[in-house]
Specification:
Blueprint (H helix, E strand, L loop, with lengths): L2 E5 L2 E4 L4 E8 L5 E7 L6 E7 L15 E6 L4 E6 L8 E8 L10 E2 L3 E6 L1
Parallel strand pairs: 2-10
Antiparallel strand pairs: 1-3, 3-7, 4-5, 4-8, 6-7, 8-9, 8-10
Length: 119
């Protein structure tokens, strides 16, 4: 059974940093990533990482501030978030794909972890 378990969310102030983690179990994935959904808004892509970590697309809104990485030995993906802004407030979802046909489509989703950035 596949499970994606996120951790690391919380309440921080603008300018602070957070690191999200997502531990996968049940199998390995060609591509993993993160989406987020802010209150009243649609879910949006944040970042993704391929198995070899040589392909890491980012949303323009987080480019230069967020860094995605993965540890295949631990079957875990991370999202290092620096210089956080109030507009980064959202529920962050870990995603994983076996087929990896697109950076924006995933078969598996975690339950989400809340990130709140106060001004």
């Amino acid at each position: 059974q596949v499970q994606l378990v996120e951790s690391g969310g919380g309440l921080v102030q603008a300018g602070d940093s957070l690191r999200l983690s997502c531990a996968a179990s049940g199998r390995t994935f060609r591509r993993m990533g993160w989406f987020r959904q802010a209150p009243g808004k649609e879910r949006e892509f944040v970042a993704a990482v391929s198995w070899s970590s040589n392909n890491t697309p980012y949303a323009d809104s987080v480019k230069g501030r967020f860094t995605i990485s993965r540890d295949n030995a631990k079957n875990t993906v991370y999202l290092q978030m620096n210089s956080l802004k109030p507009e980064d407030t959202a529920v962050y979802y870990c995603v994983a794909s076996i087929m990896a046909l697109s950076s924006y489509e995933y078969e598996y989703w975690g339950q989400g972890t809340q990130v709140t950035v106060s001004s």
